[in-house]
Amino acid sequence: MKRVEWTDEQGKKHSRLVQDNILQDPDEGIPLEPPDIERLDWEAIKRTLHNELFHRGLIDWQAVQRSGNGLQAAILAALHRKLQDLYREHLQQ
Question: Residue 92 — pLDDT band, cuts 50, 70, 90?
């Protein structure tokens, strides 16, 4: 088996394992890449992020500067669980 890597028209990198001695379309190989983040519910993530920013009082630049890692924590709170779930689903496929 050999690893084949390429970049698609949108600039996303891809990788697959394909058989060494057979001319094979890489899309038919074994995927070696993260799950498709397009499957995330971005509207729900945006809503959760908005509510996290509100809850943490991050309503202006001064509040963000005072918060230390508050902005990072809000982003992680909105995205982390959803991305973990996507990875779990990806493993089961």
Answer: confident
